Every structure is written in structure tokens, then in C-alpha cells.
Fold each of these.
Amino acid sequence: MKPSTLLKWITGACEAFLAIPIAGGAFVLGNGWAPLLFMFIFHLITLIVSIRENRFFVGSILGLVTSAIGVIPFIGWIMHTTTAIVLLIDAGISSGTDKRAKLAK
């Protein structure tokens, strides 16, 4: 598994947690919005790794936007949900591509 694929699985799972309406919101508020800053940095790292590996990186850009506007309650929830879906689908597709490339060798 390529590092970008692993990072997409992790960031997708984190976004999915933040998308849980009460739990995600309580976690963000309880930690003084720090999880949004952490996720912004994590998405930035994932973006850089994905670009270096010539992989699809729209999910990471979406994650950066989500982290920036995630402070808006309802919009933040929609964005976290959308970002989680995009990242997890991309990670799943990338995992399948990695396995096929490995078998072709």
C-alpha cells in the first residue's frame, strides 16, 4: 500500500468521526477547535504525498477547505461528511489499483 493511500484511509476515517453530528461537534468544541487545525495540517501532508506519487488529490483539497469552514455548524457537518466519502472512496480505489499493480509485476 502506498503512503498516500494509507493517509487517505486515515484522514477519511478522521473526517467520518468529525461528521458524527453530536460526537464530532462536541470533540471539536471540547478541544477548542484544535482538531480542525490538526486536520488542516494532516490534509496538507496527505496532499503533498499524493502529488509526489502522482495520485488523485481532490479529497485532500476538499479536506483543507472543510477544515477552514468547519467552524460553521451545519455547513461543517455537510463538508465533513462529503470529505469523508470522497477520501474513503478514493482510498478504496487506490487500494484496488495498488493490488492490481502488484499482481501485474
Amino acid sequence: MTYVVTENCIKCKYMDCVEVCPVDCFYEGENMLVIHPDECIDCGVCEPECPADAIKPDTEPGLEQWLQLNDEYASKWPNITAKKDAPEDAKAFDGMEGKFETYFSAEPGQGD
């Protein structure tokens, strides 16, 4: 089992999860984070820290797309181990449906 970052992280990109991760398994894209499934130790400390409720255990049904996306982009994006400020408009995007099709960016973030 691993945890995965899901659609609600897109354009929200709160980083409370990064701050508590004991194994630094988060990777930063331009407008979302992902978890490297081979590095995650399934401790679960990140899940309750996410204000957008965007982190889920991969055992929940319907997360196959997100597990694949997390795996793919964790190998392409830079590692992030320190919390940064969320985008100024994050609250406006929190809970919005259909963000992947409209807003997902495959571009890397800056990392540490």
C-alpha cells in the first residue's frame, strides 16, 4: 500500500504534507505534488495534514489513475522536502471538480 495525491491538489498545492513526511517522498510539479509509491512507507501522517483532502490510501476504490500519475511524475519532477506557501488562489480551486482536464500541468516545480 501507498498513499497517492489526487485531483484536488491541482492548483491548491498546499504543502503541509511535505513538512511531516519522514521519508521525503513528495515530488513537486508546477501546480500539484505527487508521492513516489516506491518511497512511501505507508505511515499515513501526510493524509490528515492535507487541508484539501487530496491524499488518499491507494486501497480506496477508483484511484488507479492517480496511482499511475503519482508513479510517473515522481520520476520526472524534483523532490520537495520543505513546505512552501500555497498559491494565493488555492482556496478558490479547493473542491473544484474536473481540474485534471483543465488545469493539470506536466511541467516540473522547483523542488528544494
